[in-house]
Design brief:
mainly alpha, 4 helices
Amino acid sequence: MAETLGSLCDKLTIIKLKQWHSEDEIKLNSLALQEKQLQEEINEFVNAAISGKIPREKLTFASNKVYKEESNFVPDVTGSIGEVFSQLAEVNCKLWHEQEKVYDFENVTFTEKNLVVKQLAVLNLERNKCIDEIDKNLLGIVKSINFI
């Protein structure tokens, strides 16, 4: 996958989740470095996009998920970059907690197993919608700036 603003934002939310859930000092130091690196990369990416250094066609990289829509309701994702970034962070928090159930799957009741798998699938679809929407937002901003 090509790096886009959405994919960088996704990575940053994962780093923040790992920091929240870790107490290991070595991991926390490494994560702090990764966080700073991603923040810098996001700033550089946005500046490069706005200045025209990144071609418009490289600002998005649609996930193009193929799935049965009728039984997999995924909420619409709309709003500003900040609003969608917030939704992405929330979705990734939910994904984290569902994934924790999978790590202990033998202790998940038989009736709950299908719900866990389904929830993971739907949350991942929503996550991808958020990433795509952040990218579309940035592309819209860049298009609104007149380049000669």
